[in-house]
Amino acid sequence: MPAGSLGEFVAFVRQQPGEVTVAAVNRGNSVHLAAQMFATLVGAPVRHVFYSAGPAALADLLGARIHAMFPGLPAVLGLIRAGKLRPLAALSRERLPQLPEVPTAAEQGLPDLVFETWFGLLAPKGTPQPIIARLNQEINASLDDPASAARWLESGILPAGGMPQALADLIRRERAVHAELVRDAGFGLD
Hints:
Elements: H1 6-15, E1 21-25, H2 30-42, E2 47-51, H3 54-62, H4 73-81, H5 129-144, H6 146-154, H7 164-185
Parallel strand pairs: 1-2
């Protein structure tokens, strides 16, 4: 892959619309949607190559059988640190603490290319509020523990606690953004 920066990758994609291959792990997965968001924002289609699992996609990326992938950091942090993969941009709002030398897409001229993968703990509907409050308290305490936070960071995850309503609001916002992306791109979910 000849691109050494996000700008060079954008130019590469625009010079070959629909020809640049990008890994997608299952239709509608975050890896797929991030690639589609990129293609939409730069105004040039990419050719999604679908995989049923991330390791197969990474094997083809490492073997130069596809051009690019938009994975979550935990899946590739070790490969980046080993010099086997070259990150072109962080799709986060701020630089990642694990890779502070990698600029964000916004810093490289694509301010709307923000696609942050997140994890949350959900409880069944109707779970009593005192149980939710206790779970939230314990999880936040664990995430605030320096040793625990260090382990999360080392694995490629930026630990962040919060209140249940903040997670509910995040889910609502993300659903709207992803639904629009899926609709505008003209593909359905499997």
